[in-house]
């Protein structure tokens, strides 16, 4: 990591000890935050999984992708907790879990970010097919498994250069998960290019794809061409489609709001605009601004770890099928309640695709 500018005051031994104590306090708060996020995220993911699996008609293309989205976010929260535990047990940026775990857990962040970005693109594409191409059957469920396999392959491929660039080094008896300087590891200039490329792959390309898909959806729904329901007076199906479209847009907004600021912080640190520590022989010194950086970093990473919680809220607010099915799965203890909630679930994506198929003369269609 590059040295600080002349304006940065190098710490003395005493100030370094004070900074160490501040770092321990911050890491303690970080573990509490991530643990809470992990518990809430796990609860939300299990609720979504239970609901979708229990209500078979919800096990469709879009919701299989939503499951992948939620479980990927939960996996990221678990790796974040491992990072925080390493920090508090041995000190800031130290590592106690071995060389492979150093490579795997640190690179998992980039892998999962790719997976989530392109899973959201696939969810928006499903909405595009249903709304803008109503005479075509929606993507069948088994295609979702191919999409999941493809995005994970791409995600792992994007994370391999980072994986190969890390190793554990020993400094003054403490292990650090740091960048290697021996090929095939990336040097500093290559890491800069790698992070810029990742930013384009994770944010720029998905943003353009999402913009194109959602503009097409908005145009189709506002102009009514092609028609998306048979009876102009019956806007119930159109209302459901609007809600599902809002769900897709909300998931995309949450992704950019929670992930992009953290990536910007990584880029600033990689390009030398933020310096945290330096090595003088086998002595590690922290800069005075490390506490402010840690507070900002942990706040932004906390938003990422809480993304599964946000996803559950979005599904419950914007997806009427999920909301009704969740009520049926958890609260329907009497036949009267079951009958009432069952009526709320009758209009599903399958029923909407059947309407479109009737218009096209394709009654016998699998979903």
TrEMBL record:
Entry membrane topology: Multi-pass membrane protein
Top-level taxon of origin: Eukaryota
Gene3D superfamilies, A to Z: Rhodopsin 7-helix transmembrane proteins
Listed GO CC annotations: plasma membrane
GO biological process, one term: cellular response to hormone stimulus
Cellular localization per UniProt: Membrane
Stretches that traverse the bilayer: 31-53, 65-84, 104-123, 143-164, 194-223, 244-272, 292-318
InterPro entries: GPCR_Rhodpsn, GPCR_Rhodpsn_7TM
Keywords, ordered alphabetically: G-protein coupled receptor, Membrane, Receptor, Transducer, Transmembrane, Transmembrane helix
PROSITE patterns associated with the record: G_PROTEIN_RECEP_F1_2
GO molecular function: G protein-coupled receptor activity
UniProt keyword annotation of Magnesium present: no
G-protein coupled receptors family 1 profile domain mapped to chain residues: 44-305
Protein name: G-protein coupled receptors family 1 profile domain-containing protein
Origin organism lineage: Eukaryota, Metazoa, Placozoa, Uniplacotomia, Trichoplacea
């Amino acid at each position: 990591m590059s040295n600080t500018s002349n304006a940065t005051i190098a710490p003395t031994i005493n100030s370094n000890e004070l900074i160490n104590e501040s770092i321990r306090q911050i890491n303690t708060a970080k573990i509490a935050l991530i643990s809470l996020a992990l518990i809430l995220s796990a609860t939300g993911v299990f609720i979504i999984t239970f609901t979708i699996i229990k209500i078979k008609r919800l096990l469709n293309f879009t919701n299989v992708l939503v499951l992948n989205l939620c479980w990927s976010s939960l996996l990221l929260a678990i790796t974040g907790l491992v990072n925080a535990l390493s920090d508090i047990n041995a000190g800031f940026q130290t590592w106690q879990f071995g060389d492979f775990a150093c490579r795997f857990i640190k690179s998992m962040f980039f892998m999962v970010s790719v997976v989530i970005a392109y899973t959201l693109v696939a969810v928006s594409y499903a909405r595009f097919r249903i709304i803008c191409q109503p005479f075509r059957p929606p993507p069948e469920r088994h295609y979702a498994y191919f999409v999941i396999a493809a995005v994970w392959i791409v995600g792992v491929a994007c994370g391999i250069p980072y994986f190969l660039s890390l190793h554990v080094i020993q400094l003054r008896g403490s292990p650090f998960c740091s960048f290697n300087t021996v090929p095939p590891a990336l040097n500093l200039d290559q890491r800069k290019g790698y992070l810029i490329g990742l930013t384009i792959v994770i944010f720029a390309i998905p943003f353009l794809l999402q913009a194109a898909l959602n503009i097409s959806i908005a145009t189709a729904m506002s102009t009514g061409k092609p028609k998306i329901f048979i009876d102009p007076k019956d806007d119930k199906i159109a209302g459901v489609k609007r809600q599902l479209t809002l769900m897709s847009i909300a998931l995309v907004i949450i992704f950019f709001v929670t992930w992009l600021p953290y990536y910007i912080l990584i880029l600033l640190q990689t390009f030398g605009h933020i310096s945290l520590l330096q090595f003088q022989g086998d002595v590690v010194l922290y800069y005075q601004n490390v506490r402010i950086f840690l507070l900002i970093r942990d706040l932004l990473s906390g938003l990422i770890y809480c993304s599964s919680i946000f996803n559950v809220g979005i599904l419950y607010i914007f997806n009427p099928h999920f909301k009704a099915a969740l009520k049926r799965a958890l609260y329907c203890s009497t036949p009267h309640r079951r009958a009432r909630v069952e009526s709320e679930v009758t209009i599903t994506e399958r029923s909407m695709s059947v309407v479109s198929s009737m218009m096209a003369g394709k009654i016998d269609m699998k979903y």
